[in-house]
Amino acid sequence: MNLTLDEILEGARGKTGGLPDPDSGSWREGLGILLRDHARENRLTERGWASVRNRYVDCLASRIVVDDWHRRHPDLASTPIERPVFILGMPRTGTTMLSYLFESDPAVRSMLRWEAYNLAPPAAPGALRSDPRCLAEVAKDEGILKAAAKVAAAHFEPGDSPTECVHLVAQDFRSMMLAVTTTTPTYHDWLLFTDMESAFAHRKRALQILQSTNPGRWVLKMPSDALFVRQIFKTFPDARVVWTHRDPYAAAASAFGMRGATRAFSEVDAGAEYMRRHFPLQFALHLARPLEVSRERPGDFYHLYYDTLIGDPVAEMRRLYRWLGDAFNPEAESGMTRWLAENPQNKHGKHLYSYEEWGLTRDDMTPYFADYLQVHPVAKAPLA
Fold first, then answer.
1. Residue 44 DSSP label
2. DSSP per-residue codes, 253-319
3. In this structure, is residue 108 part of a structural domain?
4. Which residue in 81, 309, 353, 380 has a CA-CA distance of 20 to 30 Å to 186?
5. Average confidence (pLDDT) over 372-382
6. Long-range contacts of 310-315 (CB under 8 A, 24+ apart)
7. Which of 186, 278, 286, 302 minimizes the C-alpha distance to 227?
8. CATH number for the domain including 321?
9. Alpha-carbon torsion angle 226, 231, 235, 238, nearest 10
10. Does residue 313 carry a pLDDT above 90?
11. Please, what is the Cα angle at 254 between 48 and 42, to 5 degrees?
12. For residue 360, which phi and psi values (nearest 5 degrees)?
């Protein structure tokens, strides 16, 4: 089975009721590379083909809806995204926990998972968690937990929780989410070096829609923003960056395990060879690029260390708010304390991981981490 770009476009047109095609053709390049990779690699199962088709149709349909909404509300284009906070770093370094702690503050605006593909019309004021589209997504959570228990042990997002901006840049088909969930070697390596301007422009347009009815200080989580950190400041000049740091050996091993578990849903196997050949460079660039930019713009980066966050989350958040210049008020502190009590570590099961199942050793990864560890010596001794 193969898919064509025209089939995806026709599916998106049908899903949006015949709205005009996207204003820009920037999405075509990435989608074309993905579809050629799928055909050449021939690793998708029947369920996998259905899954990628649905995902790509959803991405393009969301793009169409955003463009149409802006066309009908041209004033949105001039509304600023003020002082957004970007959470980035290697995968599995505490970015999710940090985003949940931020979202516990009523003054913070996060993009919720249900919003990522329901961008317009935006939720009515104050209705982010009572919107029927939100309730429909939350109703699916129990089924997701049952069907994907191994994945949930590593990472689970309820329908009304903060989510990653990978979904927004995927609507321009420039997203690490699309590179790691199936075997797409050409796309993966293209993405590491492609121009992200069009994807970030779409991301900004989506956020302008969402904040038009429910404003707030944006806190945006996307670990792979580390790969595109220069584009952050080009699109959002007054951005502040929170860079999460954790032992990269542990973070990478955990990321291998989580990604392998998700890939098994769509492919004939977890794809160890693909991950072994392509992911180490990706992890190295997750470290090298923010390391370079943080040297150029030290005042725009907050270095948040995983062990410090885990050791005393509220104290670390208080320090982070002080750096941001934001008030750490009682509502924020009580919200965070409540979230921590309701969400202990390993709530959905313990995530076990190792390098051996992917045909790698710790020593294989050392060259990819050496420069970073000279500056941020967070590596721990290997377990005996």
1. B
2. HHHHHHHHHHHTTTBSS--HHHHHHHHHHHHHHHHHHHHHHHHH-GGGEEEEEHHHHHH-HHHHHHH
3. yes
4. 353
5. 92
6. 310/94, 310/345, 313/97, 313/101, 313/340, 314/340
7. 286
8. 3.40.50.300
9. 60
10. yes
11. 25
12. -125, 165
Sign of CA dihedral 123, 120, 191, 183: positive
Token pair belonging to 375: 């500056």
Position 245, amino acid:
H
Q: Which domain holds residue 67?
A: 5-375
Provide the residue count of the chain: 384
- Total domains in the chain come to 1
Find, among 252, 250, 270, the residue nearest to 261 by Cα.
Answer: 270
| Joined tokens for residue 309 | 């966050």
Rounded Cα gap, residues 353 and 143, in angstroms: 24
* pLDDT for 146: 59
Q: Which residues contact 220 (CB under 8 A, 6 or more apart)?
A: 84, 85, 86, 87, 110, 111, 165, 207
Task: Report in angstroms the alpha-carbon separations of 88 from 3, 98, 130, 378.
Answer: 33, 10, 29, 17
307 token code pair: 């062990």
Assess if residue 130 is contained within a domain: yes
